[in-house]
Q: What sequence folds into this?
């Protein structure tokens, strides 16, 4: 089964994706790592690459084409990216689509820990990144990141452990 995991920065996507991959035995494809690698290759921060991507649509298109190519190549995988659910839906590729979210303060704390930033800096970077992504995706694809209607399951991860999130996804995949 194809599973997409989407959500804003700090919602737990990457952690949950890895744990779900272990549980199901399906490979996990984490496109946030690709974006980070692209930023590092160019000597840029995530925010700087996001600003560049606002001017150069080829950056997002490259990532999105990789999503579609991988999704079309196999049925048993977990795709973690901001647009994986929308891209698969638009291209008629079936998947169980999950959206993770949490209160912005919780997400900023998580991002700060991960990036080694203080809470204020993490919150500012997170807001800039979200604004950049929302602007690009609306401009390039006509996708409103705040429209959750494409998702089969929406989970608030704020008060849940990653294991509890994985259990919730597993229960819902099985139709319970």
A:
């Amino acid at each position: 089964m194809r599973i997409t995991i989407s959500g804003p920065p700090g919602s737990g996507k990457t952690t949950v994706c890895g744990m779900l991959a272990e549980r199901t035995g399906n490979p996990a494809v984490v496109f946030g790592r690709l974006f980070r690698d692209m930023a590092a290759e160019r000597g840029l921060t995530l925010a700087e690459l996001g600003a560049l991507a606002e001017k150069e649509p080829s950056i997002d298109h490259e990532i999105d084409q990789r999503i579609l190519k991988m999704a079309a190549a196999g049925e048993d995988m977990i795709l973690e990216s901001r647009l994986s659910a929308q891209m698969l839906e638009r291209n008629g590729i079936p998947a169980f689509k999950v959206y993770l979210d949490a209160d912005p303060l919780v997400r900023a704390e998580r991002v700060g820990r991960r990036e080694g930033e203080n809470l204020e800096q993490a919150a500012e970077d997170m807001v800039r990144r979200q604004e950049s992504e929302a602007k690009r995706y609306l401009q390039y694809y006509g996708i409103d990141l705040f429209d959750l209607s494409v998702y089969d399951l929406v989970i608030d991860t704020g008060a849940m452990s990653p294991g509890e999130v994985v259990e919730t996804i597993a229960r819902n995949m099985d139709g319970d």
